[in-house]
Amino acid sequence: MPQLNPDQIKQLQSLGIYTPTKNTTNSNHKFLPLLSISGLTLLSFGGLILFKQKNNFATPIPTPISSQNFPNPTQTPKSIQHYLLASQQFFSQALQQQQQDHPSQPKIASLLNQSILEATQAIKNFPQDYRSWQQRASIYQALIDSQPQFINQAISDFSKAFQLNPQSASIAKNLASLFAKKGDATNTLRYLSKTTVLEPTKAQNFYDLAKIQQQTGLLSQAIQTYQQLIPLVSDPQQKTQLVSQKKSLEKLVAQAKQSNSTTSQKPSPHLDLPSLSPATDDSPLLQATNTSDTGLIIASPRQDKKISLDNINQSNALSGQSTLPANQTTITIQNSQLKTSSQVYLTITKGGKNQSLQLISKSADSFVVGLNTPYPQNIEFKWWIVN
Questions:
Q1: Of 53, 69, 89, which residue sits at a domain end?
Q2: How many independent structural domains does the chain possess?
Q3: Taking the C-alpha atoms of 239, 240, 241 and 247 in order, what is their torsion angle to the nearest 10 degrees?
């Protein structure tokens, strides 16, 4: 095989293929340039045909990109609907368990606690969404009949919900109902008044407000409420009764004015109650010791339920209705609101045609109403104490 001449060796060296050594001439493998065109050289090496391009550098191998260079994907936060739905599902399961023939009290308590915890998680994640507070308040409210210790927590949560959504008539009515259950007349009237503003066409709101205004001696306000209520009632019989109620109150107020008595009216004092703590995301749970003996009673709150003050009755209200039985000349009415300076006003609402009821006597805790002669029919009448 012919030897490479110096020019050929130089050409191969310029291509980076051939490096002359001492034993190059003795090598069994020879590079034979066959053809070189525009920097592309065709070579023969050991019977193989090779192509070599001038200045052809090795292509770098790409370095694999580590997954550590990318941030780990974060978990998508759960929506408030997720927590509210989960809370309601646990609550519904507790109701279903309660309706069974042999309900398991521990299981009911566990389901209710899970319902409370889901609502609490919604509060922690979405503290500015009124629905979180309303959901938990509704659970506590449903338990009050058997677990009265939850009433303050229910009021606190509903108050926060109303602060975030002051246009909700349902929240206002729930607050009125809870304060009425506590015997807090002032706050009951406050939130009932809000319901009449938020739902000006709902007769029940006005009726509840008027009745409690009467109980607490706020007859002038009750008359105004009846004036708003009467046009909302379509049933003729109910409307007639309301008109009669309003007229009887107007007579009592007129009597007070004629006698130059003070018309300053104050609500009946409510019970001394501890001040409510601000709403927090803490969630009191049911304890097994509180549920084993009496059992849990879960009541679904109803918005159309009538509201009445639990601690006000004939014996401590400032206004009420009584009946003088037929053929009886007097009736004694016990009442703790009486004072030595109290004025008592009476007006007949049914029966006793051409009769005039009189205040026979008055003491520190009762007053006596009657007639000079017996009457053969029952006489229904309203009374009003003004202090």
A1: 53
A2: 3
A3: 110
What confidence score (pLDDT) does residue 24 get? 47
- H helix runs in 183-269, sequence order: 185-198, 203-215, 219-229, 236-258
> DSSP H helical segments within the chain, as ranges?
6-14, 80-98, 105-125, 130-143, 151-164, 169-182, 185-198, 203-215, 219-229, 236-258, 288-291
Burial class from Cβ neighbours inside 10 Å (0-12, 13-18, 19+) for residue 136 reads buried
Q: How far is CA 119 from the centre of its chain?
A: 9
User: Nearest to residue 253, comparing CAs of 225, 227, 214?
Assistant: 214
pLDDT value at 266 more than 50: no
Q: What percent of the chain has pLDDT over 70?
A: 67
Backbone angles phi, psi at 34, to 5 degrees: -95, -40
Q: Which CATH number characterizes residue 173's domain? A: 1.25.40.10
Beta bridge partners of 333: 367
Decide the pairing of beta strands 319-324 and 343-350: unpaired
Contact between 169 and 195 (Cβ < 8 Å):
yes
Instruction: Kindly indicate the confidence band of residue 2, based on its pLDDT and cuts at 50, 70 and 90.
Output: low
In a domain, 48, yes or no: yes
| Domain limits for position 20 | 6-53
- Check residues 35 and 252 and name the one with the higher pLDDT: 252
Helices (H) and strands (E) counted in the chain, each on its own, are 11, 9
Lowest-pLDDT range of 150-159, 213-222, 316-325 = 316-325
Six-digit token pair at 149?
């210790």
Answer whether residue 59 is part of any domain: no
Say if residue 104 is in the same domain as residue 207: yes
